[in-house]
Amino acid sequence: QHIPVLLIAGNHDNPERLNFGQALFAENKLFIYGPATASAAPVVLEDKTGPVYFAPLTYCEPLTATELSGTKQPTHDAALKWQIEQMLSQIPAKARKVALAHAFVTGAQETPDSERPLAAGGSAQVDISDFAAFNYTALGHLHACQNCNPTVRYCGSLLKYSFSEVSQKKAVHIIDLDAAGTVTVETLPLTAPHALAVTKGSFAQLIAEPHPEQANDYLQVILTDTTPILDAKNKLETIYPHILQ
Fold first, then answer.
1. What is the pLDDT of residues 38-63, one digit of tens each?
2. pLDDT band at 135, cuts 50/70/90?
3. CA 93 – CA 134 distance, rounded (Å)
4. What's the mean pLDDT in 139-163?
5. Exposed/middle/buried for 119, CB within 10 Å: 0-12, 13-18, 19+?
6. pLDDT reported for residue 148
7. pLDDT(120) > 50
8. 200-225 per-position pLDDT tens digit
9. CB 56 within 8 A of CB 8
10. CA of 109: how far to CAs of 88, 133, 240, in Å?
11. Which of 63, 118, 213, 215 is the most buried (most CB within 10 A)?
């Protein structure tokens, strides 16, 4: 069974490289969108009640949107509005529609140690109202699993990529779209084989009072000693074998 998969380029990606073999992959229901283009079209998939239009809003710099549109797009919000306008012009007004976007929605939770900034200051942020025409919007870029509103959500990264994500709960959203375009959401937690964790104390404490429950964790160890400890990492690894920092 071929399950359709839609992928869009983000700000970390090489969009031209992602585009390689696009038509070939699409024949097998793997839809990949690399560079932003003026001719981007929605993907139409059928369910039991009819068509659903998916709008792949691949990451687009304001300068790129300006060049493609022929009009000044000074911010990421302006660039996204142009992309959405291009997509909606190809989708029937009453059709069910889902957006996929790589963006930083204003007010959403950042993880600065993990995420590469899109731009300086607030010019990278986009307004949640940009997605008002869609029944659901699946967002990428920010690593925390979070809801901007019930129909605009980040699933976040599948794994924790820095110690600033220690307290984050990783998950994926399973979305059901009914015939009327109403969505219901089930959020499934993800548990990694090795948790990411932080432990703190003096070297003597960590040796004398170990935390066996952290033996399987990828650890950041914060030593409170005021004098250097010779070969601290190797000695601690006899108790905590997965120290990263």
1. 999 999 999 999 999 999 999 999 99
2. very high
3. 10
4. 95
5. middle
6. 95
7. no
8. 999 999 999 999 999 999 999 999 99
9. yes
10. 28, 23, 31
11. 118
Written as six digits, the tokens of 39 are 């001719």
Secondary structure of the chain in HEC code, one letter for each residue: CCCCEEEECCCCCCHHHHCCCHHHHHCCCEEEECCCCCCCCCEEEEECCEEEEEEEECCCCHHHHHHHHCCCCCCHHHHHHHHHHHHHCCCCCCCEEEEEEECEECCCCCCCCCCCCCCCHHHHEECHHHHCCCCEEEEECCCCCEEEECCEEECCCCCCCCHHHCCCCCEEEEEEECCCCCEEEEEEECCCCCCEEEEEECHHHHHHCCCHHHCCCEEEEEECCCCCCCCHHHHHCCCCCCECC
